[in-house]
Amino acid sequence: MRIFENLESEVRGYIRSFPTIFSTSKGAKLTDENGREFVDFFAGAGTLNYGHNNEHISSALIEYLQKDGIVHGLDMATTAKKEFIETFENLILKPRNLDYKLQFTGPTGANVVETALKLARLVKGRSNVVAFTNGYHGLSQGALAVTGNNEYRDESYISRANATFMPFDGYFGDWNTLEYFRKFLEDGSSGVDIPAAVILETIQGEGGINVASKEWLQELESLCREYDILLIVDDIQVGNGRTGNFFSFEFAGINPDMVTLSKSIGGGLPMSLLLFKPDLDQWKPGEHTGTFRGNNLAFVASKVSLENYWQNDDLSNAVFYKEKILKDRLEKIMKKYEGEYKIELRGRGLAYGLEFKDDASIAGEISSYAFEEGLIVETCGNQDQVVKFLPPLVIDEETLTDGLNKLEKAIDRLFK
Ligand code: PMP
């Protein structure tokens, strides 16, 4: 067990950021092998929106296994799959007047991104795809080609041949970056081919909690319609209720052609799902298959999470309520140190980031100090200069406040 004995092991893992061995978890808390408890403001980068070992999900899984439900069915029709589809359509799509086909694409986020890009290129017969600065869409070859940060790739093995990058909202301060995008589409000398699709996160999770405005998203949608470009929203990290609505784009009233979902869509189990407008179903039989597309345990977990949290607005309201607690407290902490440090707070729902503008290393130090206090927080941004807050959506108020107290203590210790 070399990885656990040698924290500097060449095997990469979170043990370097959070140097302990976790063994049990419940709600918004993790416990390590020594019995030390940690408040979790990371939630598997948005995979545990319903919390660790959610009681509704665990009991549904145990019950399903006890009655010998199908665990693996390749992509065959199963009861678990049928029930998940019905629930998703009734509780998520219909109330929002959304008409999408569902395609199960494998266990990971990268799997669904690859599928979306492949389908967009197939339908439009064009290879170029536009992505945005600081965007993150996964690290397999196609997804990596549209992931902004060069740190994840080497030019020798991933080319950007079929991808063009445009500045995300806010990249040039207040200037509307879509003017640049529009000009490049209009101007034949720009060297930009009309893309098959545009892919974006409405809040860039790995890229630094950069938040696209409602107006910017609406204008981007119009631009896509004008140039016959498919609009793909990658809702893997900030979908599934993270912003208070089930989809992160709902607040802008836009209607993407495709939506990629993963992380919390499986209720904590591996699953990814592509939603696409019915007329885009131009796959030939067998053109896009894969062994682990239909994880029946994830269908069970997902169905029960939707039934318990999306029948009414309770979870949404709870997210907005807890957003206020999180935001107010982060603003208070920020105010304390604003004189000495250039700090910016951004976010929506329960996805917030605190950026340290003049010294990128501060965010990582806060994460380490917070760990010592018993709080798990990750960093993000192209220089890891942003402390990221993604607590489970079901976190109770007491644990949220406890985590924020630990954070403030960690920052006070660091800056003293
Ligand atoms: N898209 C987004 C927005 C993500 O946040 C991630 C994962 N952080 C991915 C795609 C890739 O998901 P996975 O790591 O499961 O391949």
UniProtKB/TrEMBL annotation:
InterPro entries: Aminotrans_3, Aminotrans_3_PPA_site, Dat, Ectoine_EctB, PyrdxlP-dep_Trfase, PyrdxlP-dep_Trfase_major, PyrdxlP-dep_Trfase_small. GO terms for molecular function: diaminobutyrate-2-oxoglutarate transaminase activity; diaminobutyrate-pyruvate transaminase activity; pyridoxal phosphate binding. One of its GO terms (biological process) is ectoine biosynthetic process. Keywords: Aminotransferase, Pyridoxal phosphate, Transferase. Its EC number is 2.6.1.76. Its cofactor is pyridoxal 5'-phosphate. It holds the Pfam family Aminotran_3. It is an enzyme of class 2 (transferase). Pathway: Amine and polyamine biosynthesis; ectoine biosynthesis; L-ectoine from L-aspartate 4-semialdehyde: step 1/3. Belongs to the class-III pyridoxal-phosphate-dependent aminotransferase family. This is Diaminobutyrate--2-oxoglutarate transaminase. It comes from Halarcobacter bivalviorum. The lineage of its organism: Bacteria, Pseudomonadati, Campylobacterota, Epsilonproteobacteria, Campylobacterales.
